[in-house]
Design goal:
The protein has 17 helices and 10 strands. By secondary structure, it is α/β, with parallel strands linked by helices.
Length: 351
């Protein structure tokens, strides 16, 4: 039995080495390796996750030989993280900072494709908003809408409060989701301020619901808010999934690289035209303007820049005791291995 096990292991190892070194075309790459279904869950319709929506809508997962089952919780990234930890999903489309939180809890959650290199967040209010960021104390008593508790929009608010020594209990944090639902909460007066992403940010100004008060969508804006770029949307999974199904992880990376290239090479109107109605908030013309406003946050090929990962760690340490009290090893929160393998296996004509 041991001899048979050893032979099986040797064959598996040789196939893995061959897979890493292959340089054939897309068809050859798609036909081999792991073809079992993969469950992928996404937490919201915000535009940071656009590369996933494009990969799904354009059939890129199928093109690379992967059967993907998708689920959209539409309740914020923290819900997707819970599903991943509970093994209710294989891969999550969520935010990078969750991997840091999980390491502090001794859970090996690893990001393996970076979709959005920057925050994309804004804080908005109605035109009669009394909050003035030049006078931070004016946020006291405000009802602040976020996508969900434990989400990166939640961290945005907590970071602002920590920077100005304002107690968290001096405001009310209210989960309102994202997109049109979040905008409606602001318009209807259920909240005073909204921290959210595009398309919500663009919907607020286009519909004249209110104004943008703090804007972290640009690199300059992110540096003003966080002190550096704040990587957000990623594909992440438990380390055990990446160990057991490396071919599937590489195929996901390849599909996302195709989506990122599509976003880079096409107009906002053509990008929106590729999406089904279920992924579009508001009318398509307004959504196209939101895509254009958010375009700068997307990566070119899914690679992580290690220096940028220091920003989320610094922010979390301000208010997250688990993170502050642990020696976080950022090198264990991400890997570029699968995007590098995907790049090496993609025909030059498609790069």
């Amino acid at each position: 039995m041991y001899k048979r096990f050893l032979m099986t292991a040797l064959v598996a190892a040789s196939l893995a080495v061959a897979g890493c070194g292959k340089s054939g075309g897309e068809g050859a790459a798609a036909s081999g390796g792991d073809n079992a279904p993969v469950r992928i869950s996404v937490g919201s319709y915000n535009l940071n996750n656009l590369p996933f929506f494009i990969a799904d809508s354009k059939g890129y997962f199928k093109e690379v030989g992967l059967d993907v089952k998708t689920e959209n919780f539409a309740q914020g990234g923290s819900k997707v993280l819970q599903a991943l930890v509970a093994n209710s999903t294989d891969v999550a489309v969520g935010f990078y900072d969750h991997t840091i939180q999980m390491q502090a809890k001794q859970k090996d959650v690893v990001a393996f494709v970076l979709l959005s290199r920057n925050s994309g967040l804004v804080m908005a209010g109605r035109d009669d908003a009394t909050f003035d960021p030049a006078r931070p104390e004016t946020i006291k008593g405000q009802k602040v809408g976020i996508t969900a508790p434990g989400s990166s929009s939640d961290f945005f608010v907590r970071h602002f409060l920590a920077q100005h020594d304002i107690p968290v209990d001096s405001i009310s944090l209210i989960g309102v989701g994202s997109g049109a639902a979040a905008v409606a909460a602001l318009e209807q007066g259920k909240i005073d301020l909204l921290v959210n992403y595009d398309p919500a940010a663009t919907l607020i100004t286009e519909r004249k619901v209110g104004k943008i008060i703090i804007d972290a969508r640009s690199d300059e804006g992110a540096r003003q808010v966080y002190g550096g770029l704040y990587p957000t949307s990623v594909m992440y999974a438990n380390q055990s999934f990446l160990d057991q199904r490396p071919d599937a992880a590489e195929k996901i990376a390849r599909a996302e690289q195709k989506a990122l290239k599509f976003i880079a090479d096409n107009s906002a109107e053509d990008i929106v035209a590729a999406l089904p109605d279920s992924y579009v908030s508001g009318d398509r013309a307004t959504y196209a303007r939101a895509v254009e406003n958010a375009r700068a946050i997307f990566t070119k090929d899914g690679h992580f820049t290690p220096a940028d990962l220091e920003t989320p760690l610094k922010v979390l340490r301000e208010f997250n005791k688990d993170v502050a009290n642990h020696d976080i090893d950022l090198s264990k929160t991400y890997t570029n291995a699968f995007v590098e393998r995907a790049s090496a296996s993609t025909p030059a004509a498609q790069n």
